[in-house]
Amino acid sequence: MPDQLQPLSHNKVFDGWHHQFQHHSQVLGCNMRFAIFLPPQAQNQSVPLLFWLSGLTCTDENFMQKAGAFETAAKLGIAIVAPDTSPRGANVADDDAYDLGQGAGFYLNATQAPWAAHYRMYDYIVEELPNLLSQHFPLNGKFAISGHSMGGHGALMIGLKNPDRFTSISAFAPIVNPSQVPWGQKALSHYLGDNEQDWLAYDSCALLANSHQHLPILIDQGSADPFYSEQLQPEKLISIAEQMSYPIRFRMQPDFDHSYYFIQSFIAEHLHFHHAYLCQ
Amino acid sequence: MPDQLQPLSHNKVFDGWHHQFQHHSQVLGCNMRFAIFLPPQAQNQSVPLLFWLSGLTCTDENFMQKAGAFETAAKLGIAIVAPDTSPRGANVADDDAYDLGQGAGFYLNATQAPWAAHYRMYDYIVEELPNLLSQHFPLNGKFAISGHSMGGHGALMIGLKNPDRFTSISAFAPIVNPSQVPWGQKALSHYLGDNEQDWLAYDSCALLANSHQHLPILIDQGSADPFYSEQLQPEKLISIAEQMSYPIRFRMQPDFDHSYYFIQSFIAEHLHFHHAYLCQ
């Protein structure tokens, strides 16, 4: 019997539908909300799915309301799921800071108290959520992954660790080297402890340096992003990719910042990029 | 000397720029925020301007963040201004209800205490804001007007009362007959008093019935809009327009609701509609 999904809202948008659901996550030990866009093609055939991982403080709603992705996704026949960014609820550990705890799960499996009890977003995104979605929606098993900022880290890290599960990876302004920048060092030390070797399992620069299988990767970075030089530093990943002859398409986008105005300007190109591999 | 604009934020989006400004409104007697999108053409020529009037509870941000209008506006060379929906501030009268007071200005000039002191959104939108914008931005004097729900009422009402100032009107799910529906009756009685004759100066059905000059009008309504049958009833306006041989293009959009998912699905068509008249 399929796990239960509780519908929360649904909206017609372009030729498809946006839905929000709540479900109980066994992996996270709490109720979770996610949103899914189903293109019109899903009414009579199975479709590929793009995972969108959002950034710090976001829920399922930020991308769905602000990215302007649905006209292109409807045309290309791509479903999009937007999970939440952490476990949620009164019983889930949290912190007053915006960059730790609820809204800041960093898409990893925590090992340290008080986080280890619920913060298992890696297993949720890689295992539980795809299984749940495959039970309930007409998906053809082709998955791509994308995200923004902390979610760009999530997309790169999860894609690099699971090259057989995803056709392609893209990211907007990703954290590529969390073990070496303040946002990442704070999160990794709290969630994983002080042994920095343990952090490398979730660091895209380290993962890329040890990768043997190449996935198509597209990264966009705004030149006016206030987090660019301290927290993001995409050149670190690009430099390793060049040494490895790992083909990454990296684009510095002049004058764009870290906001959804940046994302909405290029999301259609990311969807076309993924479409080429999802529908090969 | 031009009135002062205080810049609050700016974002590159597609080939244009989104800006937020604060200024002191003489008409409203308070500080006001607005947002403006400038297309790339504004860098070396003057451009036409679409006024976007938002619905209940909104600020300048809802449309700019959620409507997905900028790709098309950038291509067509149309600037878009999104004013706030009422006067704002601790000294401005308010009400606990979402449909009266701040966020619910109904784009009229109030005559009743405690509202009359600040609630003069009609004069703000028709006089003060266009003058301010013309001082600061490269506008060519061609204005169109559009809006959603309460802002659809505002767009129709202001356009019908000022056919020489606007080339064209469009609306999403507008309140067309506020004197006869609960949202409108509540607002009009508080802002204008109990003489229902006074309400007709702001009622699009009454204005259309007495109009002698025809503007192009486009109206979209979602069939799954929960406010459709009680608060909106666009057929009332369409019926009067047919009697008057006033050409209104009215489209019932199956399954769409009252949200920005509806607006983002058709905003490009509204921009093309206005473009045809703004650039004649």
From TrEMBL, chains A, B:
Gene3D superfamilies: alpha/beta hydrolase
Family: Belongs to the esterase D family.
MF (Gene Ontology): S-formylglutathione hydrolase activity
Role according to the record: Serine hydrolase involved in the detoxification of formaldehyde.
Catalytic reaction annotation: S-formylglutathione + H2O = formate + glutathione + H(+)
Name of the featured protein: S-formylglutathione hydrolase
Keyword tags: Hydrolase, Serine esterase
Matching SUPFAM superfamilies: alpha/beta-Hydrolases (SSF53474)
Pfam families, per database record: Esterase (PF00756)
Tagged with keyword Protein biosynthesis: no
EC number: 3.1.2.12
InterPro entries recorded: AB_hydrolase_fold, Esterase-like, S-formylglutathione_hydrol
Keyword Hydrolase: yes
